[in-house]
């Protein structure tokens, strides 16, 4: 049993020894989301201000870890009035909670697990990973998944006269990350 444990620790250490650190390139990255609106259509949005670092192992072409931040004030849904409401106290409360933070806790071949913190609430989430690979001094990947916004205290909604609600609880995430070798 001790040999197996030591072997697994050795593999984990070897993987991180060959990984290089990359800085997220905000101009070539996108933190997007989609939410059902008025029960009939989707609203797409993104956060323009994303930053962070990640470790990528060029030898195995694998993401090793990721730490990222998104600034709430940079939300863009192509509707200024809606964007201002999203930043307000009753939704994201950007004044008190200016950032969304993600820190990976485990990376598997096609899955990234990590702690997502929004409005002071931290939950471990699972995201699907599409590895883009590395080329020269750049590396990239795509993450996608779903969260329930109410799990993070984002609970504003409005009942519709016809039944249903203005905004679904489920939010689809689509995040494209490109980084530059540090």
From TrEMBL:
Give yes or no: UniProt keyword Transferase: no
InterPro entries in the record, alphabetically?
Lipid/polyisoprenoid-bd_YceI, TTHA0802/YceI-like_sf
The segment(s) forming the Lipid/polyisoprenoid-binding YceI-like domain are: 21-180
Spell out the Gene3D superfamilies in the cross-references. Lipid/polyisoprenoid-binding, YceI-like
Q: Which Pfam families match?
A: YceI
Signal peptide start and end residues? 1-19
Keyword list, A-Z: Signal
For this entry, the protein name equals: Polyisoprenoid-binding protein
Q: Which organism is it from?
A: Aliarcobacter vitoriensis
The taxonomic lineage of its organism, from the top, reads:
Bacteria, Pseudomonadati, Campylobacterota, Epsilonproteobacteria, Campylobacterales
């Amino acid at each position: 049993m001790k040999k197996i444990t030591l072997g697994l620790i050795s593999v984990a250490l070897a993987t991180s020894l060959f990984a290089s650190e990359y800085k997220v390139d905000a101009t070539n990255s996108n933190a997007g989301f989609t939410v059902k609106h008025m029960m009939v259509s989707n609203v797409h949005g993104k956060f323009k201000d994303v930053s962070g670092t990640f470790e990528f192992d060029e030898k195995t072409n694998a993401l090793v870890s990721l730490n990222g931040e998104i600034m709430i004030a940079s939300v863009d849904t192509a509707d200024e009035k809606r964007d201002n409401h999203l930043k307000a106290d009753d939704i994201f409360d950007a004044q008190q909670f200016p950032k969304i933070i993600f820190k990976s806790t485990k990376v598997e071949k096609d899955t990234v697990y990590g702690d997502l913190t929004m409005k002071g609430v931290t939950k471990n989430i699972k995201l699907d990973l599409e590895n883009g690979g590395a080329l020269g001094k750049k590396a990239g990947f795509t993450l996608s998944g779903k969260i329930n916004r109410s799990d993070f205290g984002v609970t504003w909604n409005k009942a519709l006269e016809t039944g249903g609600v203005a905004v679904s609880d489920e939010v689809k995430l689509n995040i494209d990350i490109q980084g530059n070798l540090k």
